[in-house]
Amino acid sequence: xxxxxxxxxxxxxxxxxxxxDKNSALTFQKIFELHNISVAIQDFLAVYEPIxxxxxxxxxxxxxxxxxxxxxxxKDTFDHLNFNVEDSIINKxxxxxxxxxxxxxxxxxxxxxxxxxxxxxxxxxxxxNGFEEVQLKKMTKSNIAQYFKTITNSETAxxxxxxxxxFNHALTAANAFPNExxxxxxxxxxxxxxxxxxGYDAIFFNIRNEVIEPKIKQVKYLLDIKMYL
Length: 229
Description:
Number of helices: 9
Strand order of the largest sheet: 3-2-1-4-5-6
CATH superfamily of the largest domain: HAD superfamily/HAD-like
CATH class of the largest domain: Alpha Beta
Structural class: alpha/beta
Oligomer: single chain
Radius of gyration: 18 Å
Distance between the termini: 9 Å
CATH topology of the largest domain: Rossmann fold
Order of helices and strands: EHHHHHEHEHHEHEE
CATH architecture of the largest domain: 3-Layer(aba) Sandwich
């Protein structure tokens, strides 16, 4: 089913184009070595990843701030593992994690090929809840920044996806209308439902094989987006 009338394609960044889990794992490996944290990285990640997702949900819902997210996700993980780490070290780890995260630049398979395919036909944009100081670094170092006309992040918009304000903010920045726009992302609530609420079309990058309504467009591989665009 080809999507007609679309002129603007909006992407989420983390977990959609930029392989957050792979890059994050490499970052933790590096900073644990720097601080002599003797936790097996796979044991750490098995506990950390669901905790981190939960804290990001709280962050989207304005229930915690950025500093608490960065601290609590580490503190809770170490506590769960019964591994004692002083607060001063946790705070340093949280800073170093952000500092080093953008030094890794793994993208999902098909990212560059898809962007090359879309660029002649559409204007491409980013809408991200990620932190402003990190997202552009990620895009620049992974050599995808040049594909995008605008980058909207939650810190400049003042709210986070799925709040309609950030989607409208992105439309204004792109000089676009909802009925000529489509959102592609991996978070069903934040990316897909948020975009649909404002009047965008949407494609769910269903990398985790979630069960969703059949009427929602979805793909499991980025290059399958060519079926729709």
